[in-house]
Amino acid sequence: MANTPYPESYYAASANAVPPRPTLQDDVETDVCVIGAGYTGLSSALFLLENGFRVTVLEAAKVGFGASGRNGGQIVNSYSRDIDVIERTVGPRQAQLLGQMAFEGGRIIRERVAKYNIQCDLKDGGVFAALSAKQMGHLESQKRLWERFGHTQLELLDERRIREVVACDQYVGGMLDMSGGHIHPLNLALGEAAAVESLGGTIYEQSPAVRIERGANPVVHTPQGKVRAKFIIVAGNAYLGNLVPELAAKSMPCGTQVITTEPLGEELAKSLLPQDYCVEDCNYLLDYYRLTGDKRLIFGGGVVYGARDPANIEAIIRPKMLKAFPQLKDVKIDYAWTGNFLLTLSRLPQVGRLGDNIYYSQGCSGHGVTYTHLAGKVLAEALRGQAERFDAFADLPHYPFPGGQLLRTPFAALGAWYYGLRDKLGF
Ligand SMILES: Cc1cc2nc3c(=O)[nH]c(=O)nc-3n(C[C@H](O)[C@H](O)[C@H](O)COP(=O)(O)OP(=O)(O)OC[C@H]3O[C@@H](n4cnc5c(N)ncnc54)[C@H](O)[C@@H]3O)c2cc1C
């Protein structure tokens, strides 16, 4: 079988060393078979192992091959949809549960890093930057809202204060979340995979699930083996393809691109982001950036609907970076790559059960570093028979994309064009 390598990213180039992992070539038996070794799969596996389940993880390529090993590394709390929108959709009780969980993912990451001694350049502090008075007003109302759910660590930044944390003169203000922050995402995934193995879990790489035999005793087939399990967790997200047609129908893979500069040196790096916080702006099609451990700038932005790989990533993202930081005009770009996240029509994650024993979580629509860690905990709770928090997610309404799989890309692109125009015109 072909050995799928990581994409040529800064993360792959600076990944911690890991032992080679086997390809599944047998017929094995386990309690839970997890499909996909991104954060959703690894977090589920870890919580399950900590609770006494036997766990086997199947990964089509390598640990962290998907979005979890390619993302901007920003620990952004909450969901890709504002909690008041959620409240209007689902009512106060369910919104209360979801609101209380909105900042839990960041805590889980920190607990994992500390407990399993994961070397992933973890830094505290994330900034939401407002490009207009309207966006600043929105941040103010978000802060009030999050405080209602018990999240009181947020600090509003006026125009003077935001200049102290980011040397970009586009912003009128912002909000600092010290429970946000950033990590080397691939090294976080690799560290979590090592933790899974330290607890007795098995991870097979280059072992795609190609068929699921459903029923009371489900079996997951790979090209050379099979896993018999009591439960299956589907965690393939934007890379799952059509393995589970029900899930493919109501979501859409989208590409987003990231570039990494050459090392900037202490002085220049500090002049851009003196406290080393990560930043994302408040546009619908947002830009996000941060420094790496070795003082490069990682800058991401833009969306390609339908997950086609753009030919020249640097040509798309570099102008955005220079708009924020014209002082980087002579700086070289060392890496550029693309990755896929999974969009849902509501931009809320899809969580649920197919039959009695196949569980899934997917589609956090962009902000997934924290949510996926929470999802692992919530899925593990459900498998242990405590489904209240799982149900709060599972009961969120979801709809297929208009136009089905054929027309969902142009429809979504049209929607994004509209929101992009609103961002540009500032209304
Ligand atoms: C470029 C980029 C930047 C981003 N930046 C941020 C950010 O800064 N902050 C943030 O919060 N979120 C960000 N996100 C989103 C975030 O990375 C994702 O939401 C999150 O990593 C999804 O994790 P996951 O485990 O669900 O999916 P993935 O990490 O994509 O993992 C799915 C895994 O399943 C495997 N798989 C698929 N099908 C099969 C199969 N049939 N059998 C076996 N294995 C299979 C894949 O190979 C893959 O390894 C970004 C996403 C991208 C692409």
Descriptive key words:
single chain, 427 residues, alpha/beta, eight-stranded mixed beta sheet
In words, what does this structure look like?
The chain is an alpha/beta fold and 427 residues long. It has a domain at 124-180 and 252-343: 2-Layer Sandwich (D-Amino Acid Oxidase, Chain A, domain 2). The chain is 35% helix and 24% strand. The strands form two sheets. Strands 3, 4, 5, 6, 11, 12, 13, 14 and 15 form a nine-stranded mixed beta sheet that branches. Strands 1, 2, 7, 8, 9, 10, 16 and 17 form an eight-stranded mixed beta sheet that branches. Helix 2 packs parallel to helix 8 (185-198), helix 2 (39-50) packs parallel to helix 12 (369-383) and helix 5 (104-115) packs across helix 12. The mean pLDDT is 92. The structure holds flavin-adenine dinucleotide (FAD). Residues 35-41, 58-61, 65-68, 70-74, 76, 208-209, 235-240, 243, 256, 258, 288, 300, 339-341, 364, 366-369, 372 line the site of flavin-adenine dinucleotide (FAD).
CATH class division of the domain at 124-180 and 252-343: Alpha Beta
CATH architecture of the domain at 124-180 and 252-343: 2-Layer Sandwich
- Write out the distinct hetero groups bound to the structure: flavin-adenine dinucleotide
CATH superfamily of the domain at 124-180 and 252-343: D-Amino Acid Oxidase, subunit A, domain 2
Radius of gyration: 21 Å
Query: Pairing-aware structural class of the strands and helices?
Result: alpha/beta
* Major sheet size, sense and barrel closure: 9 strands, mixed
Task: Give the helix level as a range of percent.
Answer: 25-40%
Number of strands: 17
Please tally the helical runs, counting DSSP H or I stretches of 4 or more residues.
14
- The N- and C-terminal alpha carbons lie at a distance of 52 Å
Unreliable runs: none
Would you tell me the overall average pLDDT? 92
CATH structural fold name of the domain at 124-180 and 252-343: D-Amino Acid Oxidase, Chain A, domain 2
Q: Write down the overall geometry.
A: globular
Percent in strands: 15-25%
